[in-house]
Design a protein that fits this description.
216 residues, alpha/beta, two-stranded parallel ribbon
């Protein structure tokens, strides 16, 4: 499969690129700075430098002829998201460019706090921990909510992945999943497993048009 990966220099994004290449896919990794791409050169890897991800015109060439798109974009910090939201505006431009390029399949990473609470998680988690977390990172989650709304209103065949706290650990492939819900007591997940979810949902029709909670 020919894939375009946005956010390829991030913690999840570089795992997506590595795993996609290992699985035999052809990958176009979209980056601002190619020096930050922590992936060895490969004959099935194309690195495309795009300075402005909100520039629809510059995105069409990196999407034309591709079978699917993965967005591993995310706001780096609450301060940065408050100053200039990143993910929502970029994904809106990506969706418009996908329409023009004739690409329909999209898998995008979001975050568990954007999704619904889990009743079985207990009163402390639902009434204290999550409200504090959502307040502390409100601009990050607001940006991701804008992204999810744009995806949901689009004509794309989409899946949104909502992980909890991310860890730098090896891929297990045995994480839990919940359709249109968060995983009960889902506290952490390796970035490599989030990358696995982004990739595997591309060929899983049961996830199309749904948000997928994932956690270890």
């Amino acid at each position: 499969m020919k894939l375009t990966v946005f956010g390829a220099t991030g913690g999840v994004g570089h795992e997506v690129v590595r795993q996609a290449l290992a699985a035999g896919h052809e990958v176009t990794a979209v980056v601002r700075d190619p020096a930050r791409l922590d992936v060895p050169a490969h004959d099935r890897l194309e690195v495309a430098v795009v300075a402005d991800l909100t520039d629809e015109e510059s995105l069409v060439p990196v999407l034309t002829g591709r079978a699917a798109v993965i967005s591993a974009l995310g706001a780096a910090s609450n301060k940065q998201a408050k100053a200039a939201p990143v993910t929502g505006p970029a994904v809106r431009a990506i969706l418009a460019a996908m329409d023009r390029a004739g690409v329909t399949r999209l898998s995008a990473v979001s975050a568990a706090p954007v999704g619904p609470d889990v009743a079985s998680d207990g009163i402390f988690t639902r009434a204290v921990f999550l409200p504090l977390l959502r307040r502390a990172l409100r601009d990050v989650y607001a940006d991701l909510s804008v992204m999810e709304a744009a995806i949901g209103a689009s004509r794309a065949e989409w899946t949104v992945i909502r992980p909890p706290r991310l860890l730098n650990r090896p891929r297990t492939g045995t994480y839990r999943r919940a359709i249109d819900a968060n995983v009960p007591r889902g506290r952490v997940i390796p970035r490599a497993d989030v990358a696995d979810a982004l990739l595997t949902t591309l060929t899983d029709p049961t996830t199309a048009g749904h948000a997928l909670g994932v956690a270890s």
